[in-house]
Amino acid sequence: MHFLYQRAESLPFPILFSFPISDPSLKPTDERSMMMKMPWRRKSRSFHLQLQGAIGTIQSPFLFLFTNYCHSSTSTLEDARFLTNNFKSASFTHLDDAIASFNHVIHKHPLPSRVPFNRFLSALVKMKQYHTVLSMSKTIELVGISHDVYSLNILINCFCHLHLVDFGFSVFGKMLKFGLEPTTVTFNTFINGLCMESKIDKAVEFFDDMVARGYQPDAYTYNVIVNGMCKFGKTNVAIGLLKGMADRGCEPDVVTYNAIIDALCKDELVGEALELFSQMRNKGISPDVITYNGLIHGVCKLGQKNQALALMNEMVEQNILPNVYTFNVLIDALCKDGMVSEAQNTFNVMIQRGVEPDVVTYNSLIDGLCISDQFKEALALLKEMVGRNISPNVVTFNILIDTLCKKGLVSNAQNIFKIMIQRGVEPTVITYSSLMDGYCLGNQIDKARKLFDLMVTNEIADIFSYNILINGYCKCKMIDDAKDIFGEMSHKGLVPDAVTYCTLIKGMFQAGRPQNAKELFKDMYSHGQQPNIVTFSIMIDGLCRLGNLDEALTLLKAMEKSQLKPNLLIYSSLINGMCKVGKINDAMELFSSLFEIGLQPDVYVYSAIMKGLCQQGLMDEAYKVFKDMEKVGCLPNNCCYNIIIQGFLKHEDLPKASELINEMVDKGFSADATTTELVVHLSQNNDLILSKLRNRSEASKAMQ
Q1: What's the pTM value of the predicted model, to 2 decimals?
Q2: Reduced to 3 states, what is the DSSP secondary structure of residue 392?
Q3: To the nearest 10°, the Cα dihedral for 519, 525, 526, 528?
Q4: What does each C-alpha distance from 667 to 608, 637, 677 come to in angstroms?
Q5: How far lies 325's CA from each of 121, 360, 361, 387, in Å?
């Protein structure tokens, strides 16, 4: 056991000095004199302090002898019998009861054997009272009861759960020194402890050493190591271990498969997860609710809601009842896809089946309703939630505050914020950022800045907060303030991201400072930030608007070299730019090439090419493009109609313009200010057209 001995001996403190194992053959005086002769005795105090520093002050072993203890001379016989039975059965639910039973039994003569003490301490471990177990264990030693391998396993388990695996190894070293044979439980405990401390490589090393020394891992051992590997992204290694289990005489169980299926689903490898699921059933291993939950979560992530519903139905057919997690995953997926009514139906089924919703269920539904602009329904659901004694958490409040801020109802959001504070729910950086964004949207930039400064003072401002304020300043045309905030980021140790650069570059173009925009674009590269599709889109659009077509085309080539494919927004900007500098043939050529590369132009691209053709007086070509839109399934919108109508009006083709105006109005669109002005100018003798346009415009305003 080279690795194990090496691990125990490498510790910078004497092994288990704070937990001395009594030797029954020694008298107390002999034991004391023996300890006096031990060369490392002086170090004992430093180790004890080291231990205390690691796990907090361990209570004196004698504290239990005097805490909550009624001496037998004053306690009734009935009390004594109750305490003894409570100790033997380990059937307590409160720590005070356990301590009272322990204090009673530890004074009995004769004392119980080690076995009932082990059972008693195991019950406390299940209650997660690890410090108490360590302290009681020392008391048991001091009254002369020797350790066995089971009691030492209990101690190792406590240290592992306290994230003190090294202290567990000191116990392990003592186990070996006293000739006690470690069990599979010992190894399992260490492997679990190392995994809990994220030391997966050490856990694997320990596992391999265990096998090499002839110890037979059981299903639990494999499950712990497989689960650890899956958590740290080593799913392929876990699958290899699964395949090798049978060769080592250990069959995987549902827990083994669940860990790997869940990991594969989280990695969006649902196909592989489903194959493993089939393999599992072929081996006669019945899936459980955890198996199905993992698969349902996986297929929902891929947007395969029908398959998720099929899996849920299969669960029910197998008499496996969906739990709150199952329903939550499905409800959340439906809400995220805008299928809120379907999510509500699923919620109703959940209630009918007797599955109690939790705060996660309500948060998903409230978020879905808010996204689909059903805020009143969201508030009604909040009321129902509170009526069920389910307290809204920070996520609930953040959803409501963010929704109200996006609607421009910042004062209402402030009221929700106050309720949040009154209920003792601590706001997060998301809460403050949503409020700040609300102020920015409402042009209340001073309030946004005050809130931002508060966040900086409280050291909770993050990159998202800075981006919101920079965007707010840019929208208010306070570009120098935006640049100052950008400069402050580096002083706070924050690295601007793509959103920061995109926001500020766009702001610079809008403020008529293209040179600053170009400098920022170069600055991205020097700070290790790769421009993304949005960055290139903003740069190309900004340059095209300024008539710098050559620079825009150079950027397009640079973009293509970086393996980024231009989107329709970029092509729309380039077509506009070409038309702006009179290169209508190049614009038409680019427009035609979109079909050749498999891209379907959208209304923005069509608007750009039609506008260019109209400006050049090529009305027949413009009208043909307009008519071709519907043929390829791209329906003209309000903007398209206004562009083509204005083109005909500017070229004084009133009959064609009138025909299109009638068509536009019949389709529910309205004229913009430029169209109306041209109609007024050209149709002085045709009040019918003007009247129709005005009636449609008034109807549109009434609807708004």
Answers
A1: 0.70
A2: coil
A3: 140
A4: 22, 9, 21
A5: 33, 9, 9, 21
